[in-house]
Protein: Hydrolase
Amino acid sequence: MTSTVPASLFRTNGSSALQAVFLDMDGTLVDTEGFWWDAEVEVFADLGHRLDEAWRDIVVGGPMTRSAGYLIESTGADITVAELTVLLNEKFEQRITRGVPLMPGAERLLAELARHNIPTALVSASHRRIIDRILASLGRDRFALTVAGDEVGRTKPHPEPYLTAARGVGADPTLCAVIEDTATGVAAAEAAGCRVVAVPSVAPIAPSPGRVVVRSLEEVNVPFLRTLITGI
Structure:
């Protein structure tokens, strides 16, 4: 976990206003979910196996250990999760060397959050080495804190990543908004007590109490996020 701002700066005074915004990375801020699937397809092809396109919805958004384990079990590939994780990270890094495309509305939303001085954290199941590369495209200074999947004891769908982010910026999780693109990430954020904006990237996500589903980040702005917390 890395932070650029002391947590004490964001200690709250008991108000019920929006205290922080936490954003997922792959498929939410950057258009890389397809990159991950392509990397998985290529690695397994090298191992002599063909992935079923139907598995894509199953592995999207999950921690790499879970996705890797599922694909090994499904294909019967003779490789360990640890070995596969290394290969997948290497293939993915090859694809992002020249930069990554941002999702529609991502640049505008990050700039708006900065203008309003709202503490913002990047919370991803991806490993630190991947996050640090992608931050070159996103802008490291856009985030008070970044949390990687290999820096927490339990990653998404466990709430630990979002609870870690809330502690890092000194915020109450119930007064934080989370933006996620997968059911796995949504589950983690809701388990942490956060309000959630779901922007589905691959598999559909249904609305529910405390969760709003939108088609694009272009529909999300600071007044919208504040309304999630205050209800008005």
